[in-house]
What does this fold into?
Amino acid sequence: MPYTVTTELIIRLFVAAVLGGLLGLEREMHGRPAGLRTHLLVSLGAAAFMVVSPLVAGAGKMLVGDPGRIAAQIVTGIGFLGAGAILKEGVNIRGLTTAACLWIAAAIGMTAGAGYYAVALLTSGITLCALTLLPYLERLLKKHSYRVLEISSDLSMDVEAVISAIRAQRAIVLRCDMDRDYGGGVLKTTLLLRLFHNGVTDKRAHGIVDAIERLNIKVDRIVWRGP
It folds into this structure.
């Protein structure tokens, strides 16, 4: 099937590259590994596939193919690229937003490549608003977070008094594990806490630890960490 490079084709690829690049620029400004170039290339590549799909499908003289097959493979294949952006650091997982952004970049490229500019622009606008404005809204919303508090002391420590002091700081004690070493005279208490808060979770750590210190009990070590 003969074809020519038309102005419409150039516009489709250019729009996909620009819109995908805008998403990547936002990720680049936040120091994410998949940034400007990655998102631009994903969006541009998806647009190119969408442009080529009907050409490939109509290339045969005797058999007409399905123009949606290449587009369907984009939806499947981009998931592998997004999975590579997800990193696990201890108990924390990073890169989920970047992976979703790559997925959206592919969708924007597909819509631009198909010639649906309004859909591509609207999708880009909503995505940029979600990336730039929603983080401020999330800071205002209260949410649950979980932390582990480890206390090493002598065997005479009053665990109930410690739990009461923690509850007075508006933290919920979900579990209490105790390891009593009679030979060494050490009591290790591990508490799983649930905090309902907005903002930075660990800013509550100082108040809770300070409340324990005010009990005038002999504590050798206090450790505050994630679950």
Observations:
- Residues 143-225 form a domain with the Alpha-Beta Plaits fold (CATH 3.30.70.260).
